[in-house]
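Input structure tokens:
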């Protein structure tokens, strides 16, 4: 069976749809190791109108994680407890429409049968998150409002919807070995540390380079306008992962910081940042131990072969070890998106930070110096070497989708969730299953949120895709 080579990120832009033809495995060689994507082996859906344990429409999956120790082999497949993370609730930032949506985790019982590729998901409750005071969070945009808790200045609407509550736009999830968990936030780029009951216990604040600030240097947590420096609005701590030994936490920004973006060019946001924290001593370290650049794919949104004008933002990461990651990157087209642009790029990159420049402690971390040689393009300053990367999984594969009764037209716009679990196969100890989930943005014909209607013109179902990967044994 032929092996299809991977496509490197951060190099040639994708100017025509990156559709992979053929049903064979894909092989990627990176830094002396070979990784093989054996293809799509499973899928499952949950109707868009499903109601969750708090009575709201269940929004899929800004992040997902298999509960530690819950992945079990059965006579016909696998069972597990799946935790998923919705974001800030149904919203329309352009119209300044938000809901007082309490932050939460959803729990599912799932069953995967490889023989027919079927995945079933049964909702099984969840956890409502609480702040330091024991109060619920809100999904409402904070604007310029803030609250101080435990000496930390945090976003909170000063009036209107959600007034007096901490704002949280949850985008990434990672469990710790003691049953607690981290959640990455879009508003602040903070990482919030919760205990097993969902009570906030600590915060990892981003370095100065990433903290969003306005032209006058004040904190700028709102999502409606970009800050002068730091994380771009709606482009926060989108990806997060713990190394398998539990000692290293990786945090990835969705795309380039404001100061690292080529001016006036949405394709000029490819140089995103990955922060690396040592969490072996404290779960909330004050500063990263390492800090690197990863380059994302650029693409042409209408697929006509013209100059690239968008960046395929990263939406989730999984750590293979303390230097290698899987990174999910995607365009803004597909079911649920506005407009009729074709899907250009949806894939999982293999990233290796071994040879990347470490920016920890430099002016690129402690200040707001730009990584770019000039404001007009994406070339990095001399001496700054990005991580190596290559595409391992191309979701836009019609042949693989068709085997499971799917088509390109069934793919949701936003794929934002990912986890990796082992396949107990003594003959192939490196085999794993990669679970990928969409974020449907609560898009349902019958939608309810905090007792109010939030109906859409279409249903965008919650969906999982499962791929089988063969990784170097030492990589996991």
């Amino acid at each position: 069976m032929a092996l299809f080579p991977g496509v490197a990120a951060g190099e040639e832009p994708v100017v025509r749809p990156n559709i992979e033809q053929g049903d064979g495995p894909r092989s990627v060689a990176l830094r002396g190791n070979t990784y093989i994507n054996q293809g799509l082996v499973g899928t499952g859906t949950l109707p868009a109108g499903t109601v969750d344990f708090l009575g709201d429409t269940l929004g899929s999956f800004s992040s997902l994680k298999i509960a530690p120790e819950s992945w079990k082999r059965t006579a016909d497949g696998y069972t597990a407890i799946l935790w998923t993370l919705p974001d800030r609730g149904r919203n329309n930032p352009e119209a300044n429409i938000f809901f007082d949506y309490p932050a939460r985790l959803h729990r599912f019982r799932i069953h995967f049968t490889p023989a027919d590729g079927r995945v079933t998901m049964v909702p099984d409750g969840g956890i409502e998150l609480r702040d330091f005071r024991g109060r619920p969070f809100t999904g409402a945009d904070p604007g310029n409002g803030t609250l101080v808790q435990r000496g930390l200045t945090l976003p909170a609407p000063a009036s209107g919807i959600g007034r007096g509550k901490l704002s949280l736009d949850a985008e990434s999830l990672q469990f710790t070995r003691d049953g607690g968990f981290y959640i990455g936030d879009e508003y602040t780029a903070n990482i919030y540390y919760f205990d097993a009951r969902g009570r906030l216990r600590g915060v990892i604040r981003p370095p100065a380079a990433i903290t969003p600030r306005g032209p006058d240097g004040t904190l700028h947590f709102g999502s409606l306008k970009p800050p002068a420096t730091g994380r771009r609005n709606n482009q926060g701590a989108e990806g997060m992962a713990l190394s398998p030994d539990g000692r290293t936490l990786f945090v990835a920004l969705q795309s380039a910081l404001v100061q690292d973006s080529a001016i006036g060019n949405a394709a000029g946001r490819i140089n995103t940042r990955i922060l690396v924290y040592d969490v072996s001593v404290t779960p909330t370290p004050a500063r990263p131990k390492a800090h690197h650049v990863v380059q994302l794919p650029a693409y042409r949104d209408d697929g006509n072969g013209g100059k690239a004008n968008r960046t395929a933002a990263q939406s989730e990461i999984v750590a293979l070890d303390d230097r290698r990651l899987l990174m999910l990157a995607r365009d803004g087209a597909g079911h649920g998106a506005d407009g009729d642009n074709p899907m250009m790029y949806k894939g999982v990159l293999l990233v290796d930070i071994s040879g990347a420049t470490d920016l920890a402690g430099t002016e690129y971390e402690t200040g707001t110096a730009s990584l770019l040689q000039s404001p007009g393009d994406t070339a990095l300053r001399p001496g700054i070497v990005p991580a190596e990367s290559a595409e391992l999984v191309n979701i836009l594969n019609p042949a693989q989708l068709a085997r499971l009764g799917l088509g390109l037209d069934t793919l949701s716009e936003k794929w934002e969730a990912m986890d990796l679990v082992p396949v107990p196969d003594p003959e192939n100890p490196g085999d794993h299953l990669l679970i990928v989930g969409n974020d449907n943005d609560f898009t349902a014909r019958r939608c309810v949120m905090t007792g109010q209607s939030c109906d859409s013109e279409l249903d965008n179902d919650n969906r999982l895709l499962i791929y089988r990967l063969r990784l170097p044994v030492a990589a996991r």
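The helical segments are 363-366, 398-403. Residues 1-5 have pLDDT under 50 and may be disordered.
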